[in-house]
Design goal:
Helix content is 24%, strand content 27%. With 157 residues, it is α+β, with helices and mostly antiparallel strands. The strands form two sheets. The protein has a four-stranded antiparallel beta sheet, with helices on one face.
Length: 157
């Protein structure tokens, strides 16, 4: 069966796996999904990820992360831009999610990046993103939110 929105499928698998308290979830692999998993790992939302070659497109295995008493670290996972409704945003319109407790992952002409690419502070973040992307005219995005009180750790699967 063909998947019309592979990123939404990835987010749904992560969301469902976290609700079911799975240790890891397997996702059909692609370069874009690997970059998104890399950002989720660097921001502390998942423990690790691994790309497994299987002779076809590969499998991306994402190891989920839980807090104290097996509570989910990922609170919300929302796809903002969809195939049926593309959402583009200018650099000056990128707002922090839950006062910095969440991230927005952006697909730009310079690759996949987060809204926290630079040091904290509205003007510094905006200036850095504009320099990095040359104005950042339009981007596609989705949001990831973190539960309050859980700090990023460096444990690896």
């Amino acid at each position: 069966m063909a998947i019309s929105d592979p990123i939404a499928d990835m987010l749904t698998r992560i969301r469902n796996g976290a609700k079911a308290k799975f240790n890891s979830v397997d996702i059909p692999g692609s370069t874009l999904k690997t970059e998104v998993a890399k950002i989720l790992k660097n921001e502390g939302y998942v423990r690790n990820y691994k790309f497994l070659k299987d002779g076809k497109q590969g499998i991306l295995r994402v190891y989920l992360k839980y807090g104290e008493a097996q509570s989910n670290v990922i609170y919300g996972l929302k796809r903002v831009s969809k195939p049926s409704r593309r959402v583009y945003v200018r650099c000056k319109d990128i707002k922090p999610i839950y006062n910095g407790m969440g991230i927005t992952i952006l697909s730009t002409s310079k690759g996949i990046m987060t809204d926290k690419k630079s040091a904290p502070g509205k003007s510094r973040r905006r200036d850095s993103l504009q320099r990095l992307v040359g104005g950042l005219e339009t981007v596609q995005r989705f949001r990831v939110q973190r539960l309050w009180g859980y700090a990023k750790s460096t444990d690896v699967a």
